[in-house]
Amino acid sequence: MTPLVDPFGRAITYLRVSVTDRCDLRCIYCMSERMRFLPRTELLTLEELDRLCSAFIERGVRRLRFTGGEPLVRKGFLDLLRSVRRHLGDGLDEITLTTNGLQLEGFADALFEAGVRRVNVSIDSLDRETSARIARRDCLPQVLAGIEAAVAAGLTVKINTVALRHDNAHEIPDLIKWAHGRGHDITLIETMPLGEVDEDRTTQFLSLTRVREDMQSYWRLVDLPDRTGGPARYVRVEETGGRLGFITPLTHNFCEGCSRVRLTCTGRLYLCLGHETSVDLRSPLRAGADAQTIHDAIDAGIALRPKGHDFQIERLSTPATQRHMSVTGG
Amino acid sequence: MTRILFLGRTRDAAGCGEMDCEIPAAIESVADLRAWIASRDPALGAVIAARDIRVVADQCICINERASIRGASEIAFMPPLSGG
Question: pTM of the entire structure?
Answer without folding.
Answer: 0.88
